[in-house]
Design goal:
With about 260 residues, this protein is of the alpha/beta class. The protein has a single domain, classed as Alpha-Beta Complex (2-enoyl-CoA Hydratase, Chain A, domain 1), CATH 3.90.226.10. It contains eleven helices and nine strands. Strands 1-2-3-4-6-9 form a six-stranded mixed beta sheet, sandwiched between helices. Strands 5-7-8 form a three-stranded mixed beta sheet. α5 packs across α6. The radius of gyration is 17 Å and the shape is globular. The termini are far apart.
Length: about 260
């Protein structure tokens, strides 16, 4: 999955350099999440780095398409529960709201963003992938939403799942009673394309190159038009999901999970 950096001048600088790598070619940029020791989980630093980098790329006239992939073992395991364990419940809510804002910002960008998903996409990683404009996955990739089983509603991003597969199927996936593979994710519309095992990043990059050849104003206008349909009330619904999440956190199942990770009540 990992696309190695070939342009040192275009790498993220500072403390977060190692967790988000950037590879640039003429009109396409690949962002590679590199936190394998935490299963590429969405820490506060990673969320901030992704947000700042995507904003800069959206303003860069030379960039016409973006791919987000990750080093093995998988795309993203969702929120970093170890980090959340150092927070209060109120701070957890703010962290999840910031992650929600990142996902909505992808929809609001003027340039297409493609997620290359291999290994697994779990919880917030599942939702983060579906928040991208296009999703490339592989047949054996594991997709799962574990939040309800550990005591709470996912705190953000469910509009992106609903937009892809409708509310009834989205509800079943959010309940998380089953894990689906990439083939089923593609059949349901969670993923747009299937690539052979080990080739999601390469095929996502090839797709990005084709999109980069299209007239940029028309691509941006198309994205803006459909973004309004997909995220018409996304901010308000994310706020409601966050409220319900914090409410769930006061109940027994969630309390057991929170105590396990040391989240301060």
């Amino acid at each position: 999955m990992k696309t190695g950096s070939t342009d040192g001048d275009h790498r993220i600088t500072g403390e977060i350099e190692s967790m988000l790598e950037r590879t640039a070619e003429t009109a396409v940029t690949v962002l590679t999440i590199n936190r394998p020791q935490r299963r590429n989980a969405l820490s506060s630093e990673l969320v901030a780095a992704l947000g700042a980098t995507l904003d800069a790329l959206d303003r860069d006239v030379a960039v016409r398409a973006i791919v987000i992939d990750a080093v093995p073992p998988g795309f993203c395991a969702g929120s970093d529960l170890k980090e959340l364990g150092s927070m209060s419940l109120e701070e957890v809510g703010r962290h999840e709201a910031a992650t929600a804002a990142l996902a909505r910002a992808i929809c609001a960008m003027s340039k297409p963003v493609i997620a290359a998903v291999e290994g697994f996409a779990l919880g917030g990683g599942f939702v983060f992938a579906t928040s991208c404009d296009l999703v490339m996955t592989t047949p054996a990739c594991r997709w799962h939403m574990p939040e309800v089983a550990i005591g709470w509603i996912p705190p953000w991003g469910m509009d992106s799942i609903i937009a892809r597969c409708g509310p009834v199927v989205a509800r079943r996936l959010v309940w998380g009673a089953e894990t689906i593979d990439g083939t089923e994710a593609h059949r349901l519309g969670i993923a747009d394309s299937l690539a052979p095992e080990g080739q999601a990043s390469q095929q996502a990059l090839a797709l990005a190159r084709r999109l980069a050849l299209l007239p940029q104003p028309a691509v941006a206008a198309t994205k803006r038009y459909f973004s309004a349909q997909i995220m018409a009330a996304g901010e308000a619904r994310d706020a409601e999901a966050n409220r319900l999440f914090l409410e769930n956190c006061h109940h027994e199942a969630a309390q057991t999970t929170l105590k396990k990770y040391g989240v301060k009540q």
